[in-house]
Amino acid sequence: MASTVSNDKEADEYREYIDAPDVRDGKIRKLAALIRKHSGNVIFFTGAGISTGAGIPDFRSGLNSATGMPAGKWCKDATSSQWSSKERQEEKMRRANTTSSLQAIPTASHMALVALEQAGVAQGLISQNCDGLHRRSGFPPEKLAELHGNTNLEYCAWCGKEYFRDFSASTGRHTKGRTLRQQLWAQHSKLNLINPRKGNHYTGRRCVQEGCDGYLFDSTIDFGDNLPEVHINRGYELSSKAGLCIVLGSRCSVSPACDMPISVGASGRTLVVVNLQSTGADAHAKLRIGAKIDDVMIPLMDLLGIQIPKFTLKRCVHVSHTITESGSSVVLRGVEADGTPVDSLWNVQAVFSADPKSEHQHRLTSSLEISGFLHPVVVQLNQDAATSSKWAVKHPQPGDMGKVQTWPWLNQNHPGMASVVMDEGKLKGRVFSISADICSVVDGMEVLEEKTGCVVNAGYCHGSLLAHRIPVPPKHLGSQCTCLTLMFRAHYGEGSVRIPFPKPGSETLYRLEYEPMQRVWKIPKELGISMQKKKKSSIISMGRRMKKNIN
Questions:
Q1: Which of the residues 148, 318, 321, 360 is marked catalytic?
Q2: Closest CA to 112 of 133, 142, 97
Q3: pLDDT of residue 542
């Protein structure tokens, strides 16, 4: 908050103490020696500074930061009235280079921490960040203490199950969550819930764990909220056992989080601080490096002889083709490593024709990414599209429908957003750029010209498994289909990707990997096939295969 920083833009707390290159390099060599000495007993404590390299501004940096980011939010709120016109122009240019946390790619430093954990060097990670980049990077959740929550993470306040989303889980608390609080909190406040925080964090979604059906709460911590017990206990445990704690990009000024790294140094164990500004932990540190985080972690990994892995976006999709007396259908659903259903698919499209050698089928099988040959879809705005009554007459609202003119991954002006022309009401004919997070592709079947076939879209999630269903059409509309087209929300610009149309009676698990820097999909990989009919045993079997093969 602005009240936690100085209202003087020249205050010392905004000053950056940057080591000269030769001094920095010497300190990095000392850090490498410390890591070798304490290998297996090293923990990291991260703050917003580790994510500035991904284009996410921090909270406490001042003007003209070496990170290239604009002034931190708290600094801006406290000092912007003092800025000159030149400083305002500089800030405007810097802000144009920022990235939303949904589109930010984990940095080399994020991936270095993954490699250090995999190599057995790092015991765990404590983070104050809410941007979700540590989880997205692949750092094991069971070794990660996210003290202040995660904007992509929601959890069941009844059973504790966590859900890491492909969209901002926190948006729902400002839309449907407000209504749920009014309707349910008087009753739910009497229950023994997991960190309910006065009922201010309902997201509008429900738990899909067998036998639960509890309400989900977003995990982001507001000032005055209790920290999540599981994560704070994990943080204290990691800090109590660590022989070496390395702070990356934190001012260590917010309690109780800052108590964890400070306790390591105060107890005589080894504490290292890497940060541009002075921190509350400096007095207890045996080594302080004034540098950007990537400028330390990249050469450090070279000295340690550990390669930094490249980040790839991983998706797992379960596909089955069932035949019943009423007809046949293909069911697709996103799944996590433990088999938990996840809402990762935006839409599935299938083109059926009477002739497998038709032009439609030929084009669909000609390339991996087929964004240039997709049939138009209709979208409906979901619960998170709600705006205040002041803006409701000017912006689409939940339930409104429209046709997609430009796919989210092809929208150059507004990356990650679909250009949608509204179909009805006072906004009919107007075009809006709408995030794929807040609109769902409508299920439906469209007959092609001259009844040569049909197109089926499956954008809605059905049931507790969040399944997308493709009904196989009657033979007169065409029963031949060679592949399925999968569409995601395109936060990283990922276009559509195809997988083979499943054989009747089959059940297949696919791993999909996307390289955001190259903007290409790798060839989809089959992780295994299960013919089990029982849902529970199928999910357990699938979870075992995924844990073995996901990485």
A1: 148
A2: 133
A3: 46
